[in-house]
Amino acid sequence: MGLPKIIFSIATAGLSLATANIQKVPGLVITGATVSGKITIGQSKQIFSLLEAEQNGITLADNPFAYKHVKSFYDYAGNGAELWVMLISDATTVTTAVDKTEDLAAKLLNDANGRIRVLGVLRESTGNETITGGIDGDITTAVVKAQELADDFADKYFPVRVILSGSKFSGSAQDLTDYSTSDFNRVSILLSNTDGEPEASIGLALGRLASTPVQRNIGRVADGAVESLNAYFTDGQTVGSKINSWESIHGKGYIFLRNFVGKAGFFFSDDPTLTSANDDFKTLANGFVMDKAVLVSYATLIEKLNDEVPISETGNIQPAIVKSWQNDVENAVNTLMTSRGEISNFKAIIDPNQDIVSSGELVIQLQAQPVGYAKTITANIGFTTQIQ
Prior knowledge:
Elements: E1 26-31, E2 44-47, H1 50-55, H2 64-77, E3 83-88, H3 94-97, H4 105-111, E4 118-122, E5 131-132, E6 135-136, H5 137-154, E7 161-165, E8 183-184, E9 187-190, E10 192-193, H6 202-210, E11 232-233, H7 246-251, E12 257-258, E13 267-268, E14 274-275, H8 284-301, H9 319-336, E15 345-350, H10 356-359, E16 364-369
Helix pairs in contact: 2-6, 8-9
C-alpha cells in the first residue's frame, strides 16, 4: 500500500463542449460567389469546421449568405463535422441546381462518392420571386427534380434525402400546396428560420439531422431546443403569430419551428416528407433507416455476387447455404442497427425452393421492423376516490 494521499482524477468532458458526432453526412448547395484561389462556383468542397470554410472563401465578407448557413451548421454540429459544400451563382435556380442532368447537386453527390445522406439546397432571395403554392415558385418545381435526383442516386447505392427551403412564404397556410397526397418521399420543405429572413434555416436543420442517429425524429423534444430566442416563418412573421395555422401547415407536409408551453426555446415540428400518409417513407427518419439497412445489406451481399450455390438432389438450395447467407445478413444489420436501437428487429428469409440453376437469380426477403414514435401522447386524468 502506498503513502496515504488524496488523488484527483480530473474529467475533461464536463463542460459539454460541442464536438462532432456525425451520423448522416450532409451536403449543402447554396448561393455564393467565386473567391479567387479558394473556391469557384460549381466546385465541390469537403470541410470539417467553420475555420476551414473561411479558409476556402466562405467568409462573412466574401460569401455572407453561405457563411451564415455554414456557421449555423457548425454552431450545432460542432467542429470536426464533415460537410460537403457547393456554391451556385445567384442566377441559378434551385430547380436547375437539383436537376439530375445538370452538373451541380449531382456533381456534389458524385464527388462525395456516396457519403452524403442528406442534401440541403437553397438560393438567396432576390426579391423578384414569383409565389406559387404559397412559396417561391422555384421551390415548387424543384420538388419534382429533387425527387428524381434522389431516386437516381438511390439506384446507384448513393441514397440521399433532400431538404429544400420553403422561401418567401406568403404567410397564408391556405395558399400552401398540400403534399399529403403526393409521392415525393425523398424530399422535405422547411418553412422556418431563426432570423426572419425569406429563406429557411437549412444549415441548422442539417446540423440537427447530421448529429442524430438515423432513426431519430428531427423534432425529438428530449434532444433539446435548436433555437433559444427567436423563430419565424419565411414570411418574416414569428411562428407564434400563426399558432392557429400550425395544424394546417403540418398537415400539408411542411417542417417548421414551434414551441411548447413550459419549455424554453424552439423545436422542429416533425420530420414529414412530401408524400401521402400511407407511404412507409412519409418521414425522414424512416427514409434514413431504410437507406442504412440497404447499404449494410448490400455490403454483405455484394461479397456473394457470382458465388457458387450448391443444390440438393431435389433441386433445392442446400439448407446450409440458406442458413449461412441468412445469418450473414442478419448479423451485419443487427450489429450495426438493431443493437443500436435504430430498428426493432431484422430478419432475412431465403426460400430454398428456387430454380437458381436455370434463372441465375437468388431472391432474399429482408424484413426490417422500425421503431415507433410517440407523436401523440394521450394522458387520461381525473379525480378518484381510490388509487388502484
